[in-house]
Amino acid sequence: MRKSVLIIFILFLFSSINAQWPFGKDIQWYIDGPKKEWTERDHDRYYRWRDRLYASRKAESMDEQILQRQKAILNGNKITAEIWNYGSISSPGNRVTDIVWENLGYGYEFGPFICAKVPLESGHHQDAFFEISGGDTSWYARVISDGLTSLGGEVSPDGLEFYGWEPLAWNDDFTVPYGDPISENIPTSNDLDRDGDGKPDSWPFGWYNENLKDYVWPGALRQGASNSDLESFFVVDDRTNKEFQYYPFPTDSSRQGLGIEIESRYYQWANPLAEDIIFLIYKVTNKSEKDLEDVTFGMWGDPHIGGPSNWQDDLSYFDKDLNMVYCWDADGISDVTGKVPGYFGYKFLESPGQPYDGIDNDNDGLIDERQDNGIDEDGDWNIEKHDIGIDGVPNTGDFGEDDGLPTPGDQFDLRLPGEPNIDWTDLDESDMVGLTGFASPPFTSQNRISNDQYIYENYLTPGVFDSANSVQAGDYIFIYSSGPINLPANEARRFSIALLVGQDYDDLTLNAVTAQDIYEKNYQFAKPPEKPNVTAVPGNQKVTLYWDNIAESSFDPITETYDFEGYVIYRSTDPSFLDQQTITDANGSKFLFEPLKTVDGASAKFDVVNDYSGLSSIPYSGRGISYNLGDNTGIRHVFVDSNNVVNGQTYYYAVVSYDHGDAELMVAPAECSKTITVNPETGEVLLDVNTMSIIPRPVTAGYVSSVIDGDGLVQIQGNGTGLGSLEIIDHTAVQDDNNFKIIFSEDDGLNYSVLDEKNVSDTITVRLGQYHKLSHKNVDTTSFSLTSSDGSQFTNGIDFDLLDSDGQILIPNDGLITEGQAVIAIYQYYPIRNSKKLASEEGNPIFDGMTLTVQNEELELDESKIGWNTTSLNNWTADVKPFNNLSVNKYPADYEIRWFDTPVSSNYRPGYEYVKANFEVWETTRGFLEKQIPFLIVENISNDSLWNPGERIILLRDSTTSSYAWELTFYEPADGDTVSPIEGDIFSIFTNRTFVDDIFTFSTTSAKEQSTIEKANMKEIYVVPNPYVVSSSIEPLDLQNPQDRGPRRVYFANLPANCTINIYTMIGDLVTSLNHNSSIDDGIEYWDLTTSDNFPVSFGMYIFHVKSENGNESIGRFAIIK
Length: 1122
What we know:
mainly beta, 1122 residues, globular, 8-stranded antiparallel beta sheet, single chain
């Protein structure tokens, strides 16, 4: 019996493993694919099965060209969408990034497909059809390649293979990288280097550019720059589409499908004109050795207006004039109570070209123009502007730059886009056939994309345009098509579509017009300045923001100007900032965002003092509204928000740079994006470099602020009298026992640098022949060393080359350092380098949480300090000026005229040494040793061989009689009694002196916690809110479901950094214990109003007892009213 059971179990287990699907569902359940009625558990089960199947097939194939499944969240504007590197936008079961706009989802799944007629070896397939020519019968099929999951997608009959798109890591010969095989994310243009390997995490190492000495984005128009604010990139092919007996690569029968490869680029702009649009650009290449005929490019999609549970009542219409299908919800009810859904549309922009039919398909006056012949067919290449080389970047000296000829790109190498307005960088050089068909069938299994012949016959017929379903509500698919065209071997064509959302029909159509305009400008739309890098510091009922100046040097490639204008700050309790989009356009649609207000009611907007202010003269096209450029307030890089800032409340901030637009080109002002994304799986808030999530709070009970030690700036060299001002704005960033020097220099005009004397240590994993970024720029070369892990020293100029200003080192191939070796760079650096901000203006980089301003002074007498010592009773006056009143005789020194009762000095004038004086002249300049100096006397009052009041005293710089400096004359009062100086009286002369080679030092001490301070502040611990009544304004939103309330909570404030909080009922029963362990600037701890057994607490009075690790204690009470 046991043996029989064991055999049955083994057979069952073997069959299950062989089929590769989990227990509990039969194979057909998986083959049929996701259903809209499925639960989250059903979707999870399906995707686990699919992922295992993909992983298994990838491992079996051992094909390193195939990339793992990757995704990205596109969030460059108001639309947030999940994309996959097998072509899908959103996916069945996705309920949180399903093309979300204003907190509602609009898309079930969308993706491209390609259909072509190909010959078959036999007619065994059900979709095969025959043609007779010359008495010979040939079999053909209409093959569709796609990557869709909806309705099951493309799956083999046995459920063991998928026939969909395969994402690629490389081109065919592994020389051009498409993605990072290790990353789980699709490359995006705004990605960051979080793991410290020198490149943004989702980018492949092969995107390193030797000319630019950095990893750069492979832009379609130029290396190192995206056309848009956010761009994604991936490449797929259809090698695994094994449904038909067609072999596009005669020498490799393992690669099937149509032999096509698709380069996919998605664009988003944050500009208010384009903030509701995603552009989808597909470049389709026939990589096979066979020509393809009757090729149709298409897009399949399924919207759900009102949210993922509101797909049953969509209405739609196709507007042929706009080439746009749009849909809306029949009853205006969405998944979110009270929220009316908007309008959703897809607009066809660019169709593939047909350069072989002898027809001017796009009616532009050119016949059969093409994008791969190296000819500027429409004559728009300009030698003055466009002769910049194959990388699209001026002044890199690459191939084709300044050769007087248009240089097209390499269509097979994304890193070589070519010069502007030639071939692939010129949309007009394509004889586009236009949109040739549209269908809107119901979402049913019959319309599954895998039904190739059925889909072609019913929905891809050229010239047929479905009027959609504007009367009968339901669940409908969109199918766009363009073709047929010819696609010979190794040729490429492109098509593009705009995905758009709007508040209503009028708003949607305005967005469609904008999308068309952006396309016709070759996607060279308004380019905002770079995003500033922002730091936020929480405080007690305030938040301090500070940022760098990278935006201020941004070059706009559209207007070809440096058009930065200013910064504006936005604040919200909603990570999407939608509650701040309150400024409507002329149509009544919410269009612009309201800036944060300062405590005095002004907008937190800081702009350059120039000719641009107030409302821009360039209105947004079709919107009847202009951007407010500011009030010429001047640029700032620090802002303290104390306008109704509530401790314990989560705030979202964005510091946004903007430009002033271009009146001649009618380009309206543009802001950089302000992106905050909520991770759908974890609820984690993902921030951009210019967006912050922060909770203002009091510091801990024992907190002692960081300080600049001693007397602050100490002058150790030079005699400049200007002022340097240091201010700590971020006490958390100040380092302990850190020493700095401020060094002035007259090289290239007077400037100063700040040297941070604390050694920095960077560990670098070597990639030979590449530059490696250090953690800081402006490296001090005298302190720099590079060693191996065992301490062996390497030599600059032999084993490595240091670019100190860029903060990079190049490791050559022929030195002692080997590939992959870990090396350690130790150095000091200049957080401020060669600054010429000498008039107390702000704008220096903020370093270690400190700002530095410098006020230089011109060489002049300091009249406010010149005079007699305070104990002197004499009533003489003095006139001090440069000798003979000539500016050339101004000398940067301070002096004391020290009086005696008897003559002590002699005239230094040769031949007149017999003239005596009862004073000495001493140079007393700060920072130098005192020294007695010679002087000349012009005896013109009485020739008595003695100096007398009214006779000129000429101070000399040194022992040279012609080294004139200042002169002074003392005068007795004209009336009344004269009181003469007596021994011990001193007359002081002070000058204001410019900096020259001055050096100042200062040091810092970091913030700390002290037990004595903690003990004194324990009585200040309190609960917020107290009493708690039903809810609290500090309770966070549920970011995954924004309309739901977040968890209940109160917080304890002014806590020690490390303490235990025990909460008791009034009769002494322990409710729960909280352990607070925080940084010293965080004095609050939240409590979710649950017991230690995770039950909600009852209303009533409670007692809390706080005990710190230092033994300090505090007791208090609070009330909960539900």
